[in-house]
């Protein structure tokens, strides 16, 4: 079917296509003379009218400068028209074509998105009725004036009008489709002809033609019309099931066969001997053709509507990118194409804007949507359409990158990451700086299914949130998902234990290396008792809590339970000098923990001076500014703060300057071989000197044996903690009279 497009005459040479069209025009005009009743020099169907209109619509009206002379040449050279008469008729044909072309293109200009049915109606009304009426009027006037045929003028005009109109209806669509995009037309045609259903259709149509012709030659002529009428159902099936390229050829072929069989009395069609008979046949044919073309246009419209629905279903309304449905379908399609994986796989990238909910609260609805559109444009520019970028949630995007090796994918992902992370975007009245995290996995056949691939890349991005650089590339998806599955199981065990109160508080004493005070200092440790009664250490369940962002809940539970137990046991509280509790880096970065601690201290009545918090230097703190504020708030409330695992983390001495601290806990890596390693002794001595200059006290971890205690005391360490000074035991046991942890350190 014809559809809205711009003429191509301005971008293509007029000479070569013009000459081909001119020769086609002359050949079609000459061949059309075979479709007439005996003794009449007319054409029952006039193809040049459709060819000229289709060419003008596709290539521009200046092609008439070649087509009109070609038509004149045919009339003078092949039909023995006088040059003047031939010129008038050719100009009349050109004027009708020009009028029809101008009217149709004007309609296209005013209506950029024209439905196929409406476009087809415009061809009938503005092309066949107005354009064909004008050209046939000029031709009828010329012939009536110069040759004075023995018919009424209006009869002559109406007959010519019918011939012209049929030519336009039949041949303009095919000419237009061929000329507007020849490669696409031929490609679509080849695709259609390779379809088994089309081959069967062609075979059936050919068989019916042979049978109809055969019966018309035999005595059983009554069967021929029945077989001949089977053409119309075949035609209807073809226009419903084939593309526009094949439909545009099938309908004219059907019409030509219909007229040819009628004119020669073949295949059971009625024998046509007069102009009146011919007009009757052509009127029936025109009705059939219009009906078939409207069926085709309606089918095309329905197909485009369904395609539009599918596109809308797979398109994010806000940004125009693909959505989560499109991403899932793409992954499923790629996964099910067995044996088609590249040697170097494509990589799926999951890009997430951090704290997007908070951004929405800050910016408001309109500005947030504006930010999303800006991010989408930036993503399309960064990765291009071949990466199939998709928006699959608020502030969440995904796309596919191809890479020949790991180093290449790292560079590509890093390039995209830098375009987003810590960049300013002007969203409405606000300039917003965003942070992003990215998860990256290979799209290979080793994953179980496409859902596992999507789950893997999401979990990789979740891991990246806790990484300093916030980019996580996973090479072994199956292994990664197996590990995550194990963590998930442990997480479920932890959740059940928390709800069933199977988490238990243990404590390990922290002893001064000088004179023993009467009060106890100890660190709270967490254990999990399984349903079978087995006691699990923190290394067996806390990694799952860290991986799934559950540390905040764990830390709050430990703080609340510890303070409640001390409040419920005043004698324990009276024996406590310092109760030390670990705080995860993610909890410290949230900013909410300081208010929670203040509320718990007030609710339980436990003095803040009894409480100390340990922040772990080996665990990266994602929001250092928030963590500083929290630590300062702890100390303002009266709590003390320790820096745990000092000496082995990424920040080391920088943390001493960043936080307001009271204690430094020296990591056990420098204590275990203190007796034999002089470098460890030098490191411990240096840490103690720096801590002393800053007014901080030191605590040595992993202390075992009296010799180590003596060396630590000599190096200037203030406190010790380890199996040599006291093993972890249930919190109640540490306060029991006679406990092994109440012994005094000997000098």
From TrEMBL:
List the subcellular locations: Cell membrane
- GO MF, one example: cyclic-guanylate-specific phosphodiesterase activity
Major localisation: membrane
Q: Does the keyword Transmembrane helix apply?
A: yes
- What UniProt keywords apply to this chain's record, in alphabetical order? Cell membrane, Membrane, Transmembrane, Transmembrane helix
Residue ranges of every copy of the EAL domain listed in the record: 487-742
- State the Gene3D superfamilies in the record: 3.30.70.270, EAL domain
Q: Name one GO cellular component term.
A: plasma membrane
What membrane topology does the UniProt entry give? Answer: Multi-pass membrane protein
- Coiled coil where? none
- Boundaries of each GGDEF domain copy? 347-476
For the keyword Aminoacyl-tRNA synthetase, the answer is no
Which residue windows are transmembrane per the record? Answer: 12-31, 51-75, 81-103, 123-146, 158-180, 200-216, 222-240, 247-266, 278-300
Which PANTHER family does the record cross-reference, listed alphabetically?
CYCLIC DI-GMP PHOSPHODIESTERASE PDEB (PTHR33121:SF23), CYCLIC DI-GMP PHOSPHODIESTERASE PDEF (PTHR33121)
Question: What is the designated name of this protein?
Answer: EAL domain, c-di-GMP-specific phosphodiesterase class I (Or its enzymatically inactive variant)
Q: Name the species this protein comes from.
A: Marinobacter daqiaonensis
């Amino acid at each position: 079917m014809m559809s809205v497009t711009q003429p191509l005459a301005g971008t293509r040479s007029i000479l070569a296509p013009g000459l081909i069209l001119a020769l086609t025009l002359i050949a079609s005009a000459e061949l059309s003379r075979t479709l007439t009743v005996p003794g009449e020099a007319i054409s029952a169907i006039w193809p040049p009218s459709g060819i000229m209109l289709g060419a003008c619509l596709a290539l521009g009206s200046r092609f008439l400068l070649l087509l009109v002379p070609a038509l004149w040449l045919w009339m003078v050279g092949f039909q023995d028209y006088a040059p003047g008469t031939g010129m008038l008729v050719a100009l009349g044909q050109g004027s009708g074509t020009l009028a029809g072309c101008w009217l149709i293109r004007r309609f296209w200009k005013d209506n950029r998105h024209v439905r196929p049915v409406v476009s087809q109606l415009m061809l009938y009304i503005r092309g066949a009725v107005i354009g064909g009426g004008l050209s046939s009027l000029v031709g009828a006037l010329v012939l009536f004036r110069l040759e004075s045929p023995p018919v009424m003028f209006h009869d002559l005009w109406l007959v010519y009008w019918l011939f012209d109109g049929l030519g336009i209806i039949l041949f303009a669509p095919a000419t237009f489709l061929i000329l507007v995009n020849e490669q696409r037309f031929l490609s679509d045609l080849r695709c259609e002809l390779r379809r088994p259903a089309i081959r069967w259709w062609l075979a059936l149509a050919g068989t019916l033609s042979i049978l109809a012709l055969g019966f018309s030659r035999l005595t059983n002529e009554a069967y021929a019309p029945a077989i001949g009428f089977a053409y119309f159902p075949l035609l209807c099936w073809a226009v419903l099931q084939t593309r526009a390229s094949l439909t545009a050829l099938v309908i004219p072929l059907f019409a030509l066969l219909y007229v040819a069989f009628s004119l020669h009395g073949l295949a059971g069609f009625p024998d046509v001997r007069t102009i009146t008979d011919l007009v009757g046949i052509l009127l029936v044919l025109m009705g059939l053709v219009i009906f078939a073309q409207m069926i085709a246009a309606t089918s095309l419209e329905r197909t485009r509507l369904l395609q539009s629905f599918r596109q809308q279903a797979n398109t994010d309304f806000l940004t125009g990118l693909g959505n989560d449905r499109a991403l899932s379908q793409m992954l499923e399609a790629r996964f099910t194409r067995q044996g088609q994986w590249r040697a170097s796989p494509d990589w799926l990238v999951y890009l997430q804007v951090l704290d997007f909910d908070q951004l929405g609260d800050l910016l408001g609805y309109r500005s947030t949507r504006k930010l999303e559109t800006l991010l989408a444009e930036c993503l399309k520019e960064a990765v291009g359409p071949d990466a199939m970028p998709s928006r699959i949630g608020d502030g969440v995007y995904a796309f596919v990158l191809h890479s020949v090796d790991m180093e290449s994918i790292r560079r590509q992902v890093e390039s995209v990451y830098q375009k987003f992370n810590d960049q300013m975007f002007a969203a409405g009245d606000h300039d917003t700086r965003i942070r992003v995290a990215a998860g990256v996995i290979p799209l290979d056949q080793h994953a179980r299914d496409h859902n596992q691939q999507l789950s893997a890349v999401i979990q990789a991005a979740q891991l990246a949130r806790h990484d300093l650089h916030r980019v996580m590339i996973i090479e072994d998806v199956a292994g990664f998902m197996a590990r995550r599955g194990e963590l998930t199981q442990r997480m479920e065990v932890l959740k059940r234990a928390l709800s069933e109160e199977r988490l238990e508080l243990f404590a390990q004493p922290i002893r001064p290396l000088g004179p023993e005070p009467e009060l106890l200092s100890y660190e709270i440790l967490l254990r999990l008792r399984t349903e079978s009664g087995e006691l699990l250490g923190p290394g067996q369940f806390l990694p799952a809590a860290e991986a799934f962002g559950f540390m905040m809940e764990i830390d709050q539970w430990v703080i609340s339970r510890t303070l409640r137990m001390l409040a419920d046991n005043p004698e324990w509280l009276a024996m406590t000098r310092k109760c030390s509790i670990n705080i995860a880096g993610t909890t410290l970065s949230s900013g909410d923990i300081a208010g929670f601690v203040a509320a718990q201290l007030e609710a339980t009545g436990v003095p803040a001076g009894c409480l100390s918090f340990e922040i772990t230097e080996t665990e990266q703190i994602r929001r250092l500014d928030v963590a500083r504020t929290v630590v300062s708030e702890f100390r303002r409330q009266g709590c003390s703060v320790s820096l745990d695992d000092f000496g082995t983390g990424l920040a080391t001495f920088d943390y001493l300057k960043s936080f307001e601290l009271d204690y430094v806990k020296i990591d056990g890596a420098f204590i275990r071989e203190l007796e034999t390693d002089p470098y460890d002794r030098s490191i411990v001595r240096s840490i103690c000197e720096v801590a002393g200059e800053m007014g901080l006290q030191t605590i040595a971890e992993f202390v075992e044996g009296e010799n180590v205690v003596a060396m630590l005391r000599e190096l200037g360490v203030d406190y010790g903690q380890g199996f040599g000074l006291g093993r972890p035991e249930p919190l109640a046991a540490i306060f029991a009279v006679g406990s092994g942890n109440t012994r005094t350190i000997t000098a």
